[in-house]
Write a structure and sequence with these properties.
This protein has 116 residues and is mainly alpha-helical.
């Protein structure tokens, strides 16, 4: 069964924007399941990316606000969470899909390539 606990990295973002005790209280994660997907197919990689992004938005929702600083925190939280989840899955089509849709995606590709 292919699953992973997504977005433990949200804790790092929380530390950057909150006091340590507040960050501990706000640590959240979501499990993203993808046993039904064949990650050798681009449409399934896109489907997994959508699931990861949805989970990241859910986990980071506490930062979402009309206040500029809070909204920037939300955007940063989602970006870091998605980047880290894509790196953890480490599937070429998912990484390529992410890289084509994100500025930070190029960094993820470089990080994965350096690990190999």
């Amino acid at each position: 069964m292919k699953t992973f606990i997504a977005f433990a990295s949200v804790f790092l973002v929380s530390l950057a924007f909150a006091s340590p005790s507040q960050a501990q209280d706000e640590l959240k994660s979501r499990t993203v399941q993808f046993e039904d997907l064949d990650l050798s197919k681009s449409e399934d990689a896109a489907a997994l990316f959508a699931r990861i992004r949805g989970a990241a938005k859910s986990v980071c929702d506490a930062y979402n606000s009309r206040e500029l600083i809070r909204h920037q925190q939300y955007i940063a939280c989602v970006e870091v969470a998605v980047s880290n989840a894509v790196m953890r899955v480490d599937e070429p089509l998912l990484t390529d899909y992410f890289a084509s849709r994100s500025n930070s995606g190029r960094k993820v590709v470089a990080t994965i390539a350096n690990r190999r």
